[in-house]
Design a protein that fits this description.
The protein is α/β, with parallel strands linked by helices and 393 residues long. 44% of the residues lie in helices and 16% in strands. Helix 1 crosses helix 2. The protein is globular. The two termini are 41 Å apart. The N terminus is likely disordered.
């Protein structure tokens, strides 16, 4: 299950009905102002428009790909160059890519135990795929809403062959460690003779907070997975990058897993467009997400909401969470009504229950969000709060 699908399903569940989710998506499509417009919100015709600029990124007179050659091979080389690795392999999904990477490492280390975070994607969103499909044994280093510390890795009570780190950790609020913390964690794993794999589904936008280039970040790990649709707005797909011999072995397992797809040129072209169009803009989105986050805090304080949190207070990427002292269904209804009545979408994702009388949602800032000023955000907060129970308009 992909992050987007899981997020939408959770939104449907936590909104209390499919009807509310449909209202939310309809309001989002018709809105004059949103913080992000994602590909999965668009029609098929609109999505195909992404390929209008494909001729700018690849020779369209070239023969189409067959089982991974042609444009797919070109994409693999481009990703390896961006990450500074020897090679990269295209995969249809990140779930498959990471299973393959870690089972390859297990064969090399002789240890099928993989140290993970309790909130990591394989633990939360993949139906125990590591153990059920890949034959791996995940162990949880920590469940704290942050990345593992060097001490936790160094002092873990049993051996493990690989440590996987999700950068950023989505289900803790899209959080990242500092560069110093990350290097210390990697060193602690290496002290235990473990390999390090980065779940870099959102690695592309992590350079701002870490203060390092993609090559420098990837160089810390033995292998890296990256996603193509979460921030690059491609049709789908992922890549596993690392040493050439590991990538060649991974390609054999990709075939066994059913990932050797006959033709993938539409997805591959959409990735090349995303790398050209979106990748250079990600730092701008991250910077503006911090403007939006600050304005949200100011807006809720001015509106008199007794307790509201933006987490992280200064976002680490262009995604973050907002927590409010209301039940999820209450916050969801207020968000949808605000969007329907003002044609402005402040909260475009569903709300989830985070405890009794406590709800949270994810906020995403993309190109559409750059149009918002801080005052626009504060005004939208006031409109939203006015539709919460007990508020007077």
């Amino acid at each position: 299950m992909t992050d987007t699908t899981a997020s939408e399903q959770r939104a449907a569940d936590d909104d209390g009905s499919t009807g509310l989710r449909e209202r939310r998506l309809a309001a989002h499509r018709g809105a004059r102002r949103v913080l992000a417009r994602f590909g999965f919100h668009r029609t098929l015709r609109e999505r195909l428009e992404l390929l209008d600029s494909a001729a700018d990124v690849h020779d369209l007179d070239e023969l189409s790909d067959v089982y991974g050659d042609g444009v797919v091979g070109t994409l693999e080389k481009k990703v390896a160059a961006l990450l500074g690795t020897e090679a990269a392999a295209f995969f249809p999904t990140g779930t498959m890519a990471q299973q393959v990477a870690l089972r390859c490492w297990a064969g090399r280390t002789g240890n099928r135990t993989v140290a993970v975070h309790a909130l990591s994607h394989p633990e939360v969103h993949e139906r125990n795929a590591f153990s059920e499909v890949a034959g791996l044994r995940p162990v949880r280093v920590t469940s704290e809403p942050r990345l593992p510390t060097a001490a936790e890795v160094r002092d873990f009570e049993e051996p493990f062959g690989a440590l996987t780190l999700e950068l950023p950790l989505r289900d803790a609020g899209f959080v990242l460690p500092s560069w110093e913390e990350l290097t210390e964690v990697v060193a602690a794993a290496r002290e235990r003779d473990a390999v390090v794999h980065f779940d870099g589904a959102r690695l592309w936008e992590s350079t701002v907070h870490l203060g390092r280039s993609l090559e420098e970040i990837a160089d810390l790990a033995d292998s890296v997975y990256v996603s193509f649709y979460k921030s690059l707005e491609a049709f789908g797909g992922a890549a596993l990058a690392g040493p050439e011999d590991l990538v060649e072995e991974a390609k054999a397992w990709r075939h066994r897993y059913g990932g050797q797809v006959f033709q993938q040129f539409p997805t591959a072209l959409s990735v090349l467009v995303g790398l050209e169009r979106e990748l250079p803009r990600l730092p701008e989105y991250v910077a503006h997400a911090r403007v939006v986050a600050a304005a949200l805090r100011e807006g809720f304080a001015a509106a008199g909401v007794p307790w509201a949190r933006v987490h992280p207070e200064v976002p680490h990427t262009h995604d973050f969470r907002v927590w409010l002292p209301y039940d999820a269904d209450v916050a969801a209804e207020a968000a949808v009504r605000t969007a329907e009545e003002t044609a402005v979408v402040l909260f475009g994702s569903g709300w989830e229950q985070g405890g009794p009388g406590l709800a949270f949602t994810e906020v995403h800032v993309r190109s559409a969000g750059l149009e918002w000023t801080a005052e626009d955000v504060r005004t939208a907060v006031a409109e939203f709060v006015a539709r919460l129970p007990g508020q007077v308009r």
